[in-house]
Amino acid sequence: MPNTKFIIAIVAVLILSVVAWFAFFAKETPPDFKAFPAGPERKTAFFSYFSPIVIELNKQISTDRSNIKKACEKDSENLADLDEYLVKYGVEQAELKAEPACDVLLRRADIVPVSLALAQAANESAWGTSRFALQGNNFFGQWCFKKGCGIVPKSRDTGKVHEVADFRSPAESVESYMMNLNRHDAYKPLRTIRQSLREKGFVISGLPLTHGLNKYSERGEEYGKELRDMITFNDLTRFDRASD
Fold first, then answer.
1. pTM of the prediction?
2. CB–CB of 82/105 below 8 Å?
């Protein structure tokens, strides 16, 4: 006769495994922004939800930056201590031939102004109400290129294979966006502007960085102007001053 206690223990383990599996893979959803009237109430809810996420991720980036600076001050020729960050920030060997690793990393491992992140999230997700935000926690219009990696756009051109990335949580979407700005070649102009601001002792704010985002959207310069208008109209630079 089977051992009843053994069977109960096995069943309990299986149940816990299933619960853990669902807990790990379950999606975290943001507030229902559609529940707030369009205008000041929805904006306040949107900014209140996303600003702490951006601030926390910026703290993590600042920690990376601090560790990189310490390693560089210790021995700028020893890349062993920098390997982790070279991978994380997507530095390629060709770049290391052109300039020192420390210079490249310190240009990449830097904060994304809260004002800029909030403006882009609002712009790209229609204040959190877009299909991709609701279904995939994608608040920044980020693409992926493997079949099944995300949501297929209804208006995708024939022959195109991209999908709109699907994230487990809004925070994961924000993190992916911030790393995209810090890694992708398309945003070198943004990183150069940010480096200049830091070298001059200015607050790193979203308004000047919008001029480095012409390749983020097919709208080019008009996209940057739209973001500047959003930042100014909503006084989003107050978040930059508060988190500096």
1. 0.85
2. yes
| Mean predicted confidence (pLDDT) in 80-108 | 93
Angle at Cα 164 formed by Cα 134 and Cα 112, nearest 5°? 85
Q: Quick check: 24 pLDDT over 50?
A: no
Count of residues making up the chain = 244
Each domain of the chain, given as residue ranges in start order, spans 33-128+170-243
**String of b and e for 139-157 (b: at least 16 CB within 10 Å)?**
bbbbebeeeeebeeeeeee
Element holding 32 (H helix, E strand)? none
Q: Where are the beta strands (DSSP E) in 18-100?
A: none
Question: Are the CB atoms for 177 and 142 separated by under 8 Å?
Answer: yes
197: Cα separation from own chain's centroid: 21
Burial of 197 (0-12, 13-18, 19+ CB in 10 A): middle
Q: What CA–CA distance (Å, rounded) separates 177 from 165?
A: 11
Q: Show the tokens assigned to 222.
A: 């008009």
pLDDT tens-digit series, residues 172-228: 999 999 999 999 999 999 999 999 999 999 999 999 999 999 999 989 999 999 999
Using CA atoms, how far residue 13 sits from 18, 24, 25, 81, in Å, is: 9, 16, 18, 41
Contacts of 62 (CB under 8 A, 6+ apart): 111
Give the pLDDT band of residue 76 (cuts 50, 70, 90): low
